[in-house]
Design goal:
The protein contains six helices and 34 strands. By secondary structure, it is mainly beta.
Length: 609
């Protein structure tokens, strides 16, 4: 593995040298001018003074991934811990944070769930409708409020598909059978994107089958005057959950989840002022059976609803750009285990970006003020600073306070082996980061070091190894520090674009020193993570992708996983072969569930206008 890291690093060093020597210009889409919209102040990618990864539509196509969970596993610093395939349950972690500490957004709409962060990835959309994914690492409470404790991921959907229809059929190992239709309709004063899909599998082990459906609609009305955007999605997952939460061989766990979103938004622009109001409703439903064929044995049913109204704005003046916003939301939870709960939340955000020294130096202070009906007022300031050494090379740093209030599961959940705690305090942390980034059409590279000092982190703890019940508890103090490196080199070979990218993340925390034998969730952090992707095209209609992932967890487990894909395009049709875990690695990402062995998926996509 060390030899592979060394080889990849040497290749990229050589790439930088070639970049400096070549005179020709490679016509490749650059991240330089991609405007990151996951901030109150929208800025081009290379002008941001934070660690942000952009997964473009081209990278999505060349990822050998079939869903968002598989895709995000290829980003260093992002840890996706799956308990099955097809996205049945995948928990999202950034920089060693917990699954409740990362916020997922869809076009800026917060998809957090008050019941538990286990549902975060239930809202992830099908790849066919995604334009790009913005990954913001580090504390983001100043921008997004609670739940963005260690970072946030914003899924940006496509704007239009230009009167086209795409049919996709896939079949492969474990009885996988997937099908979808994606259509775009452009009219004189409106445009529409419609997606309907279903993915099924018999399962790769006992009780690991799934049957998932997804529906997506995005419509833009009145686009020639004041465009109004309607976004609606419904994702349903029905899956066997063998050993997701227990090791008892007599249990055959089963789960059904539904995630719905309905959002309306528009943008008003006048001179230097931009205002973006948004109204949305989000619903999540979760049914869990401890014994699949005996619902009366143990059954959990949770339904949460969130209604939100927010307005984000920015104003440009001689003093810089001011970003500000206000948000109000109401949450309702109905549960046979957690009870009937409701919460009112309000957030006020303010930040200002100063640009001085001929726009080479940028300084952005900001603050978020938050009110919860059950946790009262909180204030969380932060500061970003960046300096452009050249047009392509930037040094940056940021500091900020962040927080997360307990979920209703943390507070009230009860079963024979778990107990919530109504006296929990919110999690808080102070984080610092320093980084360098280099951005050109051919080369994108960044390196960042970070530190996070957290108080009151929530974990499920036993007071003694002889006890059976884990109780939700605030851990006093936890320090987390680490390093991340990302680099990608784009070049031409035989007039075709080739891409080599690498990523490495190192994480060190002192959680193991707290309660190694008594903790349920805090263990299993990714200490070392390394990813490489090589996308090549040697012929006009043929493209190959190879992905390598190495992981070493704090528990001592290490594993190497290789994935690959091949795409052959013939006129309007494209044939694909996707191979996962090619060398049959034996590993576990979360809990007690072994990941799937080597498997393959064959696909056919046909597009017409």
């Amino acid at each position: 593995m060390k030899k592979l890291i060394l080889l990849s690093t040497m290749l990229l060093v050589g790439a930088f040298q070639v970049q400096a020597q070549e005179d020709d210009t490679v016509k490749i889409d650059s991240l330089s001018e991609v405007v990151v919209i996951a901030n109150r102040i929208n800025l081009p990618f290379k002008e941001n003074s934070r660690t942000i990864n952009i997964v473009t539509s081209a990278q999505i196509k060349n990822s050998a991934a079939v869903n968002v969970a598989d895709l995000l596993q290829q980003v260093a610093g992002v840890d996706i811990r799956r308990r099955g395939t097809g996205g049945s349950q995948a928990d999202l972690y950034i920089r060693g944070g917990g699954f409740d500490q990362t916020l997922l957004l869809i076009d800026g709409v917060k998809m957090d769930d008050p019941q538990t962060g286990h549902h975060t990835m239930n809202a992830a959309l099908p790849l066919e409708v995604i334009e790009r994914i913005e990954i913001i690492k580090g504390p983001a409470a100043r921008v997004f409020g609670q739940n963005a404790f260690t970072g946030a991921i914003n899924i940006i959907t496509k704007k239009s598909l230009n009167n086209s229809v795409s049919l996709n059929v896939e079949a492969g190992s474990f009885g996988q059978l997937n099908g979808s239709v994606t259509a775009g309709v452009d009219k004189e004063n409106s445009s529409h994107i419609i997606h309907v899909g279903r993915v099924t599998s018999e399962g790769y082990r006992n009780n690991s089958d799934y049957d998932n459906a997804n529906y997506f609609l995005k419509s833009t009305f009145n686009k020639n005057a004041q465009p109004i955007i309607l976004t609606a999605s419904f994702l349903e997952r029905n899956f066997g959950a063998e050993n997701f939460y227990t090791t008892n061989p007599t249990f055959n766990e089963y789960e059904e989840t539904q995630n719905s979103l309905l959002a309306l938004s528009t943008t008003f622009k006048k001179n230097n002022l931009k205002i973006q109001p948004r109204l949305y409703w989000k619903r999540n439903q979760d049914l869990f059976l401890l014994r699949r064929n005996d619902p009366s044995f143990f059954r959990n049913m949770h339904i949460s609803n969130k209604i939100g109204l927010e307005t984000n704005a920015s104003y440009a003046s001689k003093l810089g750009i001011t970003g500000f916003g206000v948000e109000f939301s109401k949450i309702y939870l109905r549960s046979n285990n957690l009870g009937n709960r409701n919460r009112f939340m309000s957030n006020v955000f303010l930040e200002h970006r100063f640009s001085i020294a001929d726009n080479k130096l940028d300084i952005t202070p900001g603050v978020a003020l938050t009110y919860f009906s059950d946790f009262k007022f909180r204030a969380f300031p932060g500061l970003d600073i960046g300096y452009s050494l050249t047009n392509n090379f930037k040094v940056y740093g940021n500091i900020g306070y962040t927080y997360r209030i307990p979920t209703y599961t943390d507070l009230f959940y009860n079963d024979p082996v778990s107990s919530g705690n109504e006296n929990l305090e919110p999690e808080e942390a102070f984080a610092q980061e320093f980084g360098l980034k280099y951005t050109t059409p051919k080369v994108n590279a960044s390196i960042a070091v970070f530190n996070r000092d957290a108080d009151n982190l929530i974990d499920y703890i036993r007071n003694d190894v002889s006890e059976d019940v884990f109780v939700a508890t605030n851990i006093t103090e936890v320090n987390t520090k680490g390093l991340e490196l990302d680099a990608a080199y784009n070049f031409l070979f035989k007039d075709f674009t080739q891409t080599l990218s690498v990523g490495y993340a190192f994480l060190d925390d002192n959680i193991l020193d707290q309660n190694e034998e008594l903790s349920r969730y805090s263990l299993n952090t990714l200490k070392h993570q390394y990813t490489t992707r090589l996308s090549t095209q040697l012929f006009k209609n043929v493209r190959q992708n190879i992905i390598y992932k190495y992981a070493e967890r704090t528990t001592g487990q290490t594993y190497n996983v290789w994935d690959a894909s091949l795409g052959i395009k013939v006129k309007q049709a494209e044939f694909t072969i996707t191979a996962s875990n090619i060398f049959d690695a034996d590993y576990i990402e979360a809990g007690f569930v072994p990941m799937p062995p080597s498997n393959v998926l064959f696909g056919l996509r046909y597009s017409f206008k």
